[in-house]
Amino acid sequence: ARLRMQRCFGKQGVQARRHVKPVVTRPDRNGADPLPLPPSRAAAWTPHDLGVTGMVGVLSDIHIPYHDEKALRAAVDCLKAERVAAVLLNGDFADFYSISRHEKDPKERNFKRELGDVRAFLRWLRGEFPSVPIVAKAGNHEERFEKWLFQHAPEISDDPIMGLDNWLGFKDLGITLVADKRIVLAGELPILHGHEKGNGISSPVNQARGAFLRLHHTVLEGHGHRTSTHSEPDMFGRETVCFSTGCLCDLRPAYAVLNKWNHGAALVDVHAGGEFDVQNFRIADGKVRTS
């Protein structure tokens, strides 16, 4: 250290310092230049537009393999009679009981069998609607698949071959998966599964009113397994209407034997220009009820 001090500050110091390279490189800018803003890593989040006019059939909360055969048959027959232009599986078409984080009956844990049942249902549905677009929106039960991958196979969870659409054969069936809690648009009508809003309002008496209080916007959703409608005008008289649809699953599952659920589905008549009409119907004893 002493020798270095002599070289830098002794008689020959000026000449010696010319050969010393600075440890810290001076940035290539003057003091007035601002630091660059780091690029955003936020992913784009946009609605999925069905892009059709005419009738759109909305089937929510089927929960394969715990579906109700009579209710599902009645809903599909109603959609076929209306000659729908598209079918939307609005979340929880699969149950994925085996990979749930909740307590499970070991006798019922067979994920391979569940996947097979869901594939069989999708093949059946495509056979019922061979020539119309089918869109499947992921609900909270379908999201169990991604969370299960994150926990058990994080290294390959982002590989496209591990995607739910690949495991269920969507490409071969011509079915489109809408994930990431994206909104689906039927004309100007936004459609949610219902879990996207979070847990701020828990099991409201009128689910559609609960949706209005959270969103203050017209919307159709499932998730709550109950048919309801709520409308309110704003100060200029413009109407906001919220709809919740019934389910097509077993109404007496072991984890909720007593509940307020009902069977149901919806038809959305999309007009040119985006205007729409909603038929939010119940199903009782295998029959469609419109009032």
Could you characterize what this model shows?
The model has no long low-confidence stretch (mean pLDDT 90). The strands form 2 sheets. This protein has a 7-stranded mixed sheet with strand order 5-4-3-2-11-12-13. Strands 1-6-7-8-10-9 form a 6-stranded mixed sheet, with helices on one face. It contains 8 helices and 13 strands. The chain is an alpha/beta fold and 291 residues long. The protein has helices at 2-9, 13-17, 69-81, 111-128, 143-152, 164-167, 170-173, 207-215, and strands spanning 48-49, 54-59, 86-90, 134-137, 175-178, 184-186, 189-192, 219-221, 228-233, 239-244, 263-270, 276-284, 287-289.
What are its keywords?
291 residues; Purple Acid Phosphatase, chain A, domain 2; seven-stranded mixed sheet; six-stranded mixed sheet; 8 helices; 24% helix
Structural class by secondary-structure content:
alpha/beta
- The unreliable regions are none
Number of DSSP helical runs: 8
| Spatial extent as radius of gyration | 28 Å
Proportion of residues in helical segments:
10-25%
Name the CATH class of the domain at 53-189 and 259-289: Alpha Beta
Overall outline: elongated
CATH topology of the domain at 53-189 and 259-289: Purple Acid Phosphatase, chain A, domain 2
CATH architecture of the domain at 53-189 and 259-289: 4-Layer Sandwich
Distance between the termini: 94 Å
Task: List the quaternary state of the chains.
Answer: single chain
Estimate what percentage of residues fall within beta strands. Answer: 15-25%
Summarize the biggest pleated sheet. 7 strands, mixed
Number of strands: 13
Q: What is the average per-residue confidence, as pLDDT, rounded to a whole number?
A: 90
What is the ordering of alpha helices and beta strands? Answer: HHEEHEHEHHHEEEHEEEEEE
Largest sheet strand order: 5-4-3-2-11-12-13
